[in-house]
Amino acid sequence: MDAEDRQDSLFFKLCSDHLSIEAIPRRAIRVDIAELKNRAILGLELILWTPHFVVLRNRAGQEITLRRNGRMIIRKAESEPVAKRAAAEVMNAVCVGSKI
User: Fold this and answer.
1) For position 100, what pLDDT does the model report?
2) Fewest beta carbons within 10 Å, which of 64, 73, 80, 85?
3) Buried b (16+ CB within 10 A) or exposed e, 52-83
4) Which residues does 54 contact at the CB level (< 8 Å), separation at least 6?
């Protein structure tokens, strides 16, 4: 599945702070957060890990909070298209080799 397909599988909305974008999977998924603690994710830096969510940083500097249900908050994106690409990038990276 390519990045455009991943973007289509997500619903996007502006957060109430008007600075972040939330990405919500269109179908129910389950991300193995415990596995992410021990697995290197290509192109993403693990900033914070908890049993309930992780905070990742991509090469472009966007910070993405990823929860177990696949919902993401994308911060520090200059525009909506940049945030959408960041969310698709995370979904691609997490889906490869994961039990989603």
Assistant:
1) 46
2) 80
3) ebbbbbbeeebbbbbeeebbbbbbbbeeeeeb
4) 33, 36, 37, 46, 48, 65, 66
| The CA-based dihedral angle spanning residues 7, 95, 70, 88, taken in that order and rounded to the nearest 10 degrees | -20
Residue appearing with tokens 């690409």: 85
| C-alpha to C-alpha distance for 99 and 60, rounded to whole angstroms | 26
As a whole number of angstroms, the distance between CA 88 and CA 2 comes to 9
pLDDT in tens, 12-22: 998 887 789 99
H or E stretch including 95?
helix 80-95
- Inter-residue contact 65 to 72 (CB < 8 Å): yes
Residue 12 pairs in a beta bridge with 23
